[in-house]
Amino acid sequence: MTTPLRIDIVSDVMCPWCIIGYQQLARALEATGTAHDIHWHPFELNPEMPPEGQNTREHIIEKYGSTPEQSAQSREQMTKLGTDLGFDFRFTEDMRMHNTFNAHQMLHWADKQGRKNDLKMALFTAHFTEGRDLSDMAVLADVAGETGLDRTEALAVLEEQRFASDVRQEQNFWIQQGIRGVPAMVFDQKHLITGAQGVDNYTKILVQLTKETT
Which of 33, 48, 53, 136 is the most buried (most CB within 10 A)? Predict the structure, then answer.
């Protein structure tokens, strides 16, 4: 019996390249028939973001020094990549970046029920496709409920900050491992790959790892 390949993915649901990279990896996993076990881990792109968030385009220009033209080109590129991978990016002029500490707490809770991947995908869609405010506890609880989780319990988890210390501890662990940007994927707890690498490159990585373990 083949042991599934462990894949640890450090990411944030505010990061478009995280869902692009994941979808590319998923295509490669399917194409190669690789048995796998994915573990998602928390990362906050904007831990100091105020509660009201910030306009996404303004944030990108301010944080990375991009021009409005570069920002528009990047959105166009990501939208096309998303379409090719079956993910619907709907960028708008009033889209906002928010802090995701509460979202990570809810994902931690969902993991205990074996539903972390489902909720992670739902949160990416809620932000990038539906334009919902993932800093709002009620919205997060709604998304959990729509995913088949208990909405009332989800809201209680957030209001109590039940898993705040667990999430902080896990975030700090990955920062101590040198993770400064996402997506960051660790294959077989040994091989770190950063950024969205494309289906072909992920396929080559999986094939190589399979050779190493046989």
Answer: 53
